[in-house]
Design a protein that fits this description.
2 copies of one chain form a homodimer.
Chain A (H helix, E strand, L loop, with lengths): L2 E4 L6 E4 L37 E4 L9 E7 L14 E3 L2 E5 L3 E6 L13 H18 L7 E8 L11 E7 L4 H17 L3 H12 L3 E5 L2 E4 L10 E5 L11 H22 L4 E6 L14 E6 L6 H6 L2 E3 L3 H9 L4
Antiparallel strand pairs in A: 1-2, 1-6, 3-4, 4-7, 5-6, 7-9, 8-9, 8-13, 10-11, 11-12, 12-14, 13-14
Helix pairs in contact in A: 1-4
Chain lengths: ~325, ~325
């Protein structure tokens, strides 16, 4: 059973994923697995994954070919779906069982596809899959949060090349989400306005950090980005929970995403990247002070000791320059 | 002038290091520069660095050969020594000038040396250099903190191979240090004991996560490590400020460090790693609730979207197993 452990000083939880444990000598970088018969996510290899939870299919039967996307449990889950938390102390330390869900969204049967080349309909389907899994996992009272994320490219932590994203449901609200919630609530208390709405308002007025805007969604380079070309995508209207997205909105968001990733790929030559969806906790929808958003971070350099030790990030790329480049302008 | 910018939601500062700014097309991974005439840190190439601030020398004149270690300003500093902070607002955003110090400690003239192979005396000299630079930078009222850190190997963010560490003095206490200070103060308020002293006490009693202990210093695998083989080194007696280290203590700490890095190199085949020194802020020495410590994180895998989005780290290596391996036992 994986274990959740809490740092007694800063209160940060980690997942000690014992079932993935390796011998000390096994720690080397895993190569990204290639295309072909051996790709477990390709069409025809459905038996290589656990049975699907959700899929885009016409008449084809489950767990065989003939799909546009599939959602399956992660074969090597960081957390386990069965069991109780059983929180216990060990002297001054706190631990609990690593209970949660870990799923993979196989975004397309096309091994060589990407968010930059998929059709708007295909990407909209993936967004609907995210939404439906969020709504479904919300029914389990054991989960407090679902983090949807994507690792693309080896430098971004992907171990498989085939286009996919993931979600992990956790029994605790992750510390980074808590910090955003607390910061947003603090701002609301002071101003009675959503800080994210205020950011969008200011960015739309100033334009310098706006990358792209269409049909109710906006992509911006944030004022204080940790990474070169870090970008945020938000609904322009106030919305705290991603799963409240309506069907026509998923198409609008998909269109913006495809355009964004097309520009990112062109500007940076298909960079490795991560994205992470920050939405309201499962039990706290309809928050007036929080605003869901997607954070995209290209992986262009290794994070080093100063960042790990300080939490200060050194970013050589001003967001105004990054936004201009992604708009297709030389600033 | 580099700029410090604050995220309006979570309050995290970043350094937009405009003087290092590159064109979008320039973002590729820098190769680690090799040995030979072209290594700017090798003996004989002293004119390739800015003039030294401090060095270990017998009779040799400054900025020429004949040294055991050198401290020089970073040629491409993340922050600039000149100027005032001039904090200003831009709508809801906050910024200030990127004022600070950025220095490099060249640890040995031996290009192929490492903390695992240097002599105890050589490492003790490096520790004295850290201490003396901390004490000296403390005299400037503009600085609140000095972070001492090391990047070893390309995967850990090093751009030069020659053994070196760095320090950055900042006008703000870094958020990660603040979080540790706050957590430690909270524990003190509850228990009137130093949480770090309590951790050391429990670890010494349980032994399972102790890697090494000698002459007043201890190396442990922390209970909730973010990374495989993450290790902390602390003085066993309560000490909040590194710069209060006495001369005989630097030798004891150096001996433990050499032994620790020897074991780390053997167990993981000279892994890339970072270390970060967490000591009390410059204006807050003699804290009863904080305890200085060195955090060492080998870079064995890429950090991925889940970690960046949640702050939850997934670690496949239980610290008990890591400590046993570093003790030379199979657990």
């Amino acid at each position: 059973m994986p274990e959740l452990r809490k740092d007694p000083v800063v209160g940060r939880w980690v997942i000690i994923s014992t079932e993935r444990a390796r011998r000390p000598t096994d720690f080397h970088r895993d190569p990204v697995r290639a295309h072909g018969d051996r790709c477990v996510f390709c069409e025809g290899n459905e038996d290589k994954t656990p049975p699907e939870i959700l899929a885009g299919r016409g008449d084809s039967p489950p767990n065989g070919p003939g799909w546009s996307f599939r959602v399956v449990p992660n074969k090597f889950p960081a957390l386990r779906i069965e069991g109780d938390l059983e929180p216990t102390g060990e002297g001054l330390f706190d631990r609990m069982n690593g209970v949660g869900a870990h799923e993979v969204v196989i975004e397309t049967p096309n091994h060589h596809g990407s968010l930059a080349t998929m059709s708007v309909d295909e990407v909209a389907d993936v967004l609907v899959a995210f939404r439906d899994r969020l709504s479904d996992l919300k029914k389990s009272p054991r989960f407090e949060y679902v983090l949807v994320f994507k690792n693309r490219g080896e430098a971004a932590g992907a171990s498989l090349e085939h286009p996919h994203s993931q979600l992990i449901a956790t029994p605790i609200i992750p510390i980074m989400v808590s910090e955003e919630l607390e910061g947003s609530a603090r701002y609301w208390k002071m101003k009675e306005r959503c800080v994210w709405c205020d950011i969008i308002h200011q960015e739309r007025r100033e334009r310098r950090r706006v990358i792209l805007e269409r049909d109710g969604f906006i992509a911006i380079a944030p004022f204080a980005p940790r990474f070169p070309f870090e970008s945020w995508i938000l609904p322009i209207k106030h919305r705290s929970a991603f799963e409240e997205l309506e069907v026509d909105e998923t198409r609008h968001l998909a269109a913006l995403l495809v355009e964004f990733f097309r520009r990112l790929s062109t500007t940076l030559n298909e960079p490795p990247f991560n994205f992470m969806l920050h939405t309201a906790p499962l039990r706290e929808t309809g928050l007036e002070y929080f605003h869901w958003h997607l954070e995209i971070i290209p992986k262009l350099a290794n994070v080093a000791g100063f960042e790990w030790g300080s939490g200060f990030f050194i970013n050589p790329m001003p967001p105004e320059t990054a936004a201009a480049a992604l708009r297709g302008e030389a600033e």
